[in-house]
Write a structure and sequence with these properties.
The protein is of the alpha/beta class and 122 residues long. It contains five helices and four strands.
């Protein structure tokens, strides 16, 4: 039986905790005001992030989230992004995986879409 990964969502601005496991930034751009030392990121997986075009269109407008999620799930089928998603799934098979984003509304972000996919077994 395949065990689903233990995945958490957090903002990169939150202090790291000892039980974060593997900390992965899933944003396309490095967040402002956060040093790489302070962030304690194990990996920056920009390849899994939405395209600049989709990110700009979405602009974190709550009423666009459903459409954003559908479009982003389609983008995740592209070879490079699908490979990056598989890499996240592989990492999550070995340790807790904490997906990090700079987004204020973590529950309506690409990290939330990734969380849903990873905890469903992608």
């Amino acid at each position: 039986m395949h065990t689903l990964p233990d995945v958490r969502l957090r903002r990169i601005y939150d202090e790291p905790t000892a039980d974060d496991g593997i900390r992965v930034l899933v944003d396309r751009r490095w967040p402002r005001g956060v040093s790489k030392v302070r962030a304690q990121v194990d990996e920056w997986c920009a390849d899994v992030a939405p395209s600049d075009e989709l990110r700009t269109w979405f602009a974190h407008v709550a009423s666009r989230y459903e459409e954003f999620e559908a479009r982003y799930r389609e983008e995740l089928k592209e070879p490079g992004r699908a490979h990056a998603l598989g890499h996240l799934l592989d990492m999550g098979a070995h340790d807790r995986l904490t997906l990090l984003t700079a987004t204020r509304d973590v529950d309506r972000s690409q990290a939330a879409v990734l969380y849903d996919l990873l905890t469903a077994g992608a």
